[in-house]
Specification:
166 residues; alpha+beta; 5 helices; 17% strand
């Protein structure tokens, strides 16, 4: 894994990010050999070894967060792209913290937190949200020509491996 600083959070003191871990942990990312996707894996908070002390409101938001396909954030397992898209669709702004964490499967990764838990200018948060969405869309959207015709078997051959994990 390579982490590159693009300067989006420049002038933010490390202590300012403390609420992200304390109150904003929403999952983790790690390299996993247990799944077919080639990207990092995102696990929701129920899949990681952490003692959470979430307020009732925060816990309810995590439990309620899901997408149109029925993926639930709290127990999600999938590619980092699908995980971050799920977070964005439910109004969480994911940030990867340089804090190690372990999945319940014993995999070591990094904490993913909701950046909106820190005191930050709303324009900056909006700008970051737009940038993360643009980045994720590069990996999760595919534009197809309206004239493209695929049989069911061709579609299954091309996209069948992208089914939900058990």
């Amino acid at each position: 894994m390579v982490i590159r600083d693009n300067g989006y959070l420049e002038n933010i003191k490390p202590a300012t990010l403390d609420p992200c871990f304390d109150n904003g942990t929403i999952g983790m990312v790690c390299k996993s050999d247990h799944y077919e996707w080639e990207s990092l894996t995102f696990y929701g908070i129920e899949k990681i070894s952490i003692k959470t002390d979430l307020s009732k409101t925060r816990n309810a938001a995590l439990v309620a967060a899901e997408n149109q396909y029925g993926d639930k954030l709290i127990n999600f397992t999938g590619s980092i792209y699908r995980g971050f898209q799920l977070l964005l669709e439910n109004h969480f702004l994911p940030v990867v913290l340089l804090t190690a964490i372990t999945s319940k499967r014993g995999e070591i990764g990094l904490v993913v937190a909701d950046l909106r838990t820190i005191p930050m200018d709303i324009k900056k948060i909006s700008s970051l949200n737009d940038e993360v969405m643009r980045t994720i869309e590069k990996y999760t959207l595919m534009v197809l020509n309206d004239e493209l015709k695929l049989s069911d078997s061709d579609f299954e051959e091309m996209f069948g491996k992208y089914k939900l994990p058990p």
